């Protein structure tokens, strides 16, 4: 049986990490039995969350989880999609992961007010005397990753413009359909939904959250996924 190692629910979200949410949604979509456990970064095969164990086979990366479920359990997340539709779904998934994810990281880690009510809480479990040493190290590592990805080199307005264009594209792709590619969720919805829901999180004030809220079909997409996968979660 698969065990999914997660960051855990926080900020009114299914998980503090959109990639953990994506993995959890993929497993819910698969219908396979699975269990969840708190992640320990020191044990993460790739130093990131989520990571997984399937009867002793440990691996990391949410997309590799999808491949593992498809290969080992014969589940087709994209059943009924044409090759062109699958290509479109894949491109939207990777677009969300390259733009929305990093816009979330920027908004939560670099903006001081959001950091104080958000990621700073990840360190609450550390002994207080250690926090002044550990926090700056981790913040520097996140800023370095943002720079490596590219968003960390942009002005705020540039990040907002790039990501707003991505939100426009996702909104246009969904249109008046319930899901990205049609009447049922496909593999890409696990990721796009997790990213959109993370960006729309009411706990954080960001211009991009406001931009996303202007798209009525993105907020109803968020609500549709919550009702389907997390009916007990009150987003606050
Ligand atoms: N490609 C990975 C990305 C996972 C990822 O970036 N996870 C973040 C949390 S949302 C993380 O563990 N960051 C810690 C780090 O980069 O050191 C996946 O799809 O699982």
Could you give a short description of this structure?
With 236 residues, this protein is of the alpha+beta class.
Overview of this structure, please?
It is built from 9 helices and 4 strands. The radius of gyration is 18 Å and the shape is globular. The protein has a 4-stranded mixed β-sheet with strand order 2-1-3-4, with helices on one face. It has 236 residues and is an alpha+beta fold. Glutathione (GSH) binds next to helix 1 and helix 2. Glutathione is lined by residues 17-19, 47-50, 61-63, 145.
Q: How much β-strand is present in the residues? A: 5-15%
Spell the H/E element sequence. EHEEEHHHHHHHH
Q: In which order are the strands of the major sheet placed?
A: 2-1-3-4
Count of helical stretches: 9
What is the average of the pLDDT values?
97
Bound small-molecule species: glutathione
Largest pleated sheet: 4 strands, mixed
SS elements, strand count: 4
Low-confidence stretches: none
Q: Globular, elongated, flat, extended or rod-shaped: what is the shape?
A: globular
Query: Helix/strand/pairing class, anyone?
Result: alpha+beta
Query: Which oligomeric form is depicted?
Result: single chain
Rg from alpha-carbon coordinates = 18 Å
Instruction: Determine the N-to-C terminus distance.
Output: 33 Å
Helix content: 55-70%
């Amino acid at each position: 049986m698969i065990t999914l190692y997660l960051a855990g629910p926080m900020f009114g979200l299914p998980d503090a990490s959109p990639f953990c949410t994506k993995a959890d949604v993929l497993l819910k979509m698969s219908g396979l039995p699975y269990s969840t456990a708190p992640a320990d970064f020191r044990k993460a095969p790739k130093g990131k969350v989520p990571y997984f164990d399937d009867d002793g086979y440990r691996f990391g990366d949410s997309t590799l989880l999808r491949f593992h479920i498809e290969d080992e359990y014969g589940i087709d997340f994209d059943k009924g999609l044409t090759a062109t539709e699958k290509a479109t779904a894949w491109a939207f998934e990777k677009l969300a992961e390259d733009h929305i994810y990093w816009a979330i990281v920027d908004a939560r880690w670099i903006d001081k007010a959001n950091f104080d009510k958000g990621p700073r809480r990840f360190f609450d479990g550390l002994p207080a005397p250690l926090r002044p040493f550990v926090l700056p190290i981790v913040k520097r590592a996140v800023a370095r990753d943002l720079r490596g990805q590219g968003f960390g080199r942009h002005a705020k307005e540039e990040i907002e413009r790039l990501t707003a264009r991505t939100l426009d594209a996702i909104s246009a792709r969904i249109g008046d359909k319930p899901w990205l590619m049609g009447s049922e969720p496909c593999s890409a919805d696990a990721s796009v939904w997790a990213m959109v829901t993370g960006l729309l999180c009411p706990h954080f004030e960001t211009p991009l959250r406001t931009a996303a809220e202007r798209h009525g079909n993105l907020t109803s997409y968020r609500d549709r996924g919550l009702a389907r996968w997390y009916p007990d979660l009150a987003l606050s």
